């Protein structure tokens, strides 16, 4: 199946602007919020960091698809592509950590509204946000030279001390160790069960199950769901890096990533919005909250279905 790889460069050009430009905006808002001591602005910047962390996943994947589509083309340096991919992997990791810390700060603020803007989480978000911005700058600089050799040759960029090979090292570590793939498969399934289990419990409470229990009790479980989600993302990225050429050609892989991203965004609703949080023991949720709960269950069910079907898609041919 050639549709996904051939469209990779166009999709990547579209997606990569969101995290690269968005980090500048989010960090600026966060700094302004700290200076002005504006809680609303701070929460807005945290939500933005979280959204960017989620968008980093399809952005990185589209970059791998772009690599398979253009590598080997005349005037395109494979070494430069490798350096760009390695830099992108590091930026992806730091942006993901920033997003996770932002979610934890939002979750903690929901439970402790008077939390200081100088809390440990706020300091960590600021620190990782600054590092992420620096890494994004490097990623963008290298990537800009791939299709525009007129602004600088690959040799000039690589001679600046930029090292590559981390992605290849991860790939070799997974493929050359017979225990790595099955061990990560086991962890992947456990993570999915943990994440989906928490999502299902939270959504069913909103839909009316266990109505005598206040929503705040279920809200306490959300970090456990985040842990399952992180296990899924980490192990899934190892799978993808080790065999990216096959994954980007699978018909069922893009829908899974799309549903995963949207499903993760939907969880933000149950983390910070009042519709669910205000539900006490015996309270019935408003219609909007029930719609979100049903939609969230459908999205994550779709992630599981497409994930289980991936082995049967083969190489997408």
Characteristic key phrases:
14 helices, transmembrane helix, membrane, globular, 0% strand, transmembrane, mainly alpha
Beta content comes to under 5%
Give the N-terminus to C-terminus distance in angstroms.
5 Å
- Mean model confidence by pLDDT: 86
Q: Please mark out the parts with pLDDT under 50 across 5 or more consecutive residues, or reply none.
A: 1-6
Helix content: over 70%
Task: Return the structural class.
Answer: mainly alpha
Order of helices and strands: HHHHHHHHHHHHHH
Give the oligomer, counting copies of the same chain as homo and different chains as hetero: single chain
> For the CA atoms, what is the radius of gyration?
21 Å
Report on the biggest sheet: none
**How many helical elements?**
14
Return the domain count.
Answer: 2
Strand tally is 0
**CA-based shape:** globular
Polypeptide structure, described:
- The chain crosses the membrane at residues 17-36, 48-68, 88-107, 119-139, 186-209, 221-241, 253-272, 293-314.
- Keywords: Membrane, Transmembrane, Transmembrane helix.
- The protein has 317 residues and is an all-alpha fold.
- The protein has two domains: 1-163; 165-311, no CATH class.
- The termini are close together.
- It is globular and about 65 Å long.
- The chain contains 14 helices and no strands.
């Amino acid at each position: 199946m050639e549709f996904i790889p051939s469209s990779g460069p166009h999709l990547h050009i579209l997606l990569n602007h969101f995290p690269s430009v968005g980090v500048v905006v989010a960090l600026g808002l966060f700094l302004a919020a700290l200076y002005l001591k504006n809680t609303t602005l701070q929460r807005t910047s945290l939500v933005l960091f979280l959204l960017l962390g989620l968008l980093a996943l399809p952005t990185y994947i589209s970059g791998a698809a772009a690599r398979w589509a253009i590598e080997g083309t005349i005037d395109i340096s494979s070494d430069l592509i490798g350096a760009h991919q390695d830099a992108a992997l590091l930026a992806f990791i730091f942006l993901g950590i920033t997003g996770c810390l932002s979610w934890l700060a939002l979750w903690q603020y929901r439970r402790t509204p008077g939390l200081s803007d100088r809390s440990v989480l706020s300091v960590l978000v600021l620190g990782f946000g600054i590092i992420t911005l620096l890494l994004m700058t490097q990623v963008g600089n290298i990537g800009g030279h791939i299709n525009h050799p007129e602004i600088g040759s690959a040799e000039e960029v690589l001679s600046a001390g930029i090292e590559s090979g981390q992605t290849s090292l991860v790939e070799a570590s997974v493929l050359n160790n017979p225990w790595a793939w099955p061990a990560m498969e086991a962890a992947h399934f456990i993570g999915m069960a943990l994440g989906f289990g928490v999502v299902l419990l939270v959504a069913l409470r909103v839909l009316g199950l266990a109505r005598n229990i206040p929503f705040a009790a279920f809200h306490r479980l959300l970090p456990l769901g985040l842990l399952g989600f992180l296990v899924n993302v980490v192990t899934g990225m190892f799978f993808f890096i080790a065999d990216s050429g096959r994954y980007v050609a699978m018909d069922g892989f893009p829908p899974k990533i799309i549903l995963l991203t949207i499903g993760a965004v939907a969880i933000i609703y149950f983390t910070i919005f009042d519709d669910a949080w205000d539900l006490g023991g015996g309270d019935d949720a408003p219609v909007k909250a029930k719609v979100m709960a049903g939609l969230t269950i459908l999205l994550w069910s779709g992630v599981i279905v497409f994930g289980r079907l991936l082995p049967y898609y083969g190489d997408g041919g």
